[in-house]
């Protein structure tokens, strides 16, 4: 399975409309990939909180959804289009990732469960998602998560219990916590015996330098590919039969004790 992670530079001097066109062309250049992944909130910027309300759009027929649907269809790829600021029918805002099939249809979406901000920014401007989402695509099962979710292993256990073999994590991760990004991506791969596709943004927006350094991590924690800090297309090949063999030869997931109960103080 060939994957391409497009680490997009979110430049505040570039309009969202211009960026959509540029990103659509980048997706078009990945024809032949099985799955293309974009970062979190690349149309507006993950830290551009003041722009969330004005940039909110429909997940089905908004400008980003239309552009990415056409890009997926033109390239003939599964496209995880990163995330958008979704305006729900009731007016609420969500950080919502979109998965398009090679025919351009919106196949699945995921609303980010864990909102970042500590009672500021995204944490107060957006509503939380309520469901863990897995979806069969590109001859595997994808588990969908977004950025800050990476710090919460409970969500990833739900995804693996739902059959996920490949964990897709678009992000707008700040450079000042870059060491956490790499450590957590590797940890999620090891503990869940799954591939992790962690795709971040590049550049600086809203005064926050982005980490970049997108990663493809194997189930044993080996980093198969890693980007630098700037805009870059990162490609890797995932060996899905080897993943099944690895889980069978080292069946750690079977040893989980779900009946152990809560820890007791002594």
Could you provide a short overview of the structure?
Belongs to the carbon-nitrogen hydrolase superfamily. NIT1/NIT2 family. The protein is of the alpha/beta class and 266 residues long.
What does this structure look like?
With 266 residues, this protein is of the alpha/beta class. The protein has one domain: Carbon-nitrogen hydrolase (Nitrilase/N-carbamoyl-D-aminoacid amidohydrolase). The protein contains 7 helices and 14 strands. The strands form 3 sheets. The chain has a 6-stranded mixed β-sheet. Strands 6-7-8-9-12-13 form a 6-stranded mixed β-sheet, with helices on one face. A hairpin with a 5-residue loop joins strand 3 (78-87) and strand 4 (93-100). Helix 1 runs parallel beside helix 3 (63-75). The longest helix has 15 residues, at 178-192. The mean pLDDT is 96. GO terms for molecular function: hydrolase activity. This is Carbon-nitrogen family hydrolase. Residues 1-240 form the CN hydrolase domain. It comes from Streptomyces polyrhachis.
Q: Between the first and last Cα atoms, what is the distance in angstroms? A: 50 Å
Order of helices and strands: EHEHHEEEHEEHEHEEEEEEH
- Provide the β-strand percentage band: 25-35%
- Can you tell me the number of structural domains? 1
| Helix segment tally | 7
């Amino acid at each position: 399975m060939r994957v391409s992670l497009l680490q997009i530079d979110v430049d505040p001097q570039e309009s969202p409309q211009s960026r959509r066109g540029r990103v659509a062309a980048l997706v078009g250049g990945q024809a032949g990939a099985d799955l293309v992944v974009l970062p979190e909130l690349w149309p507006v910027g993950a830290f551009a909180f003041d722009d969330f309300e004005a940039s909110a759009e429909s997940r089905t027929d908004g400008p980003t959804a239309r552009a990415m649907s056409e890009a997926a269809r033109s390239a003939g790829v599964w496209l995880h289009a990163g995330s958008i600021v979704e305006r729900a029918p009731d007016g609420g805002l969500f950080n919502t990732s979109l998965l398009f099939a090679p025919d351009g249809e919106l196949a699945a979406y995921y609303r980010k469960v864990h909102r970042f901000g500590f009672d500021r920014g995204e944490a107060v401007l957006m509503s939380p998602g309520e469901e863990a989402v897995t979806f069969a695509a590109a001859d595997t099962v994808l588990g969908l998560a977004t950025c800050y979710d990476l710090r919460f292993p409970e969500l990833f256990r739900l995804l693996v219990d739902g059959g996920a073999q490949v964990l897709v994590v678009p992000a707008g991760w700040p450079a000042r916590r870059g060491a956490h990004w790499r450590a957590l991506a590797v940890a999620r791969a090891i503990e869940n015996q799954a591939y992790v596709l962690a795709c971040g943004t590049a550049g600086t927006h809203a005064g926050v330098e982005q980490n970049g350094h997108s990663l493809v991590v194997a189930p044993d924690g080996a980093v198969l590919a890693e980007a630098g800090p700037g805009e870059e297309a990162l490609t890797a090949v995932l060996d899905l039969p080897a993943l099944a063999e690895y889980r069978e030869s080292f069946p750690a997931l079977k040893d989980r004790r779900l009946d152990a109960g809560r820890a007791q103080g002594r």
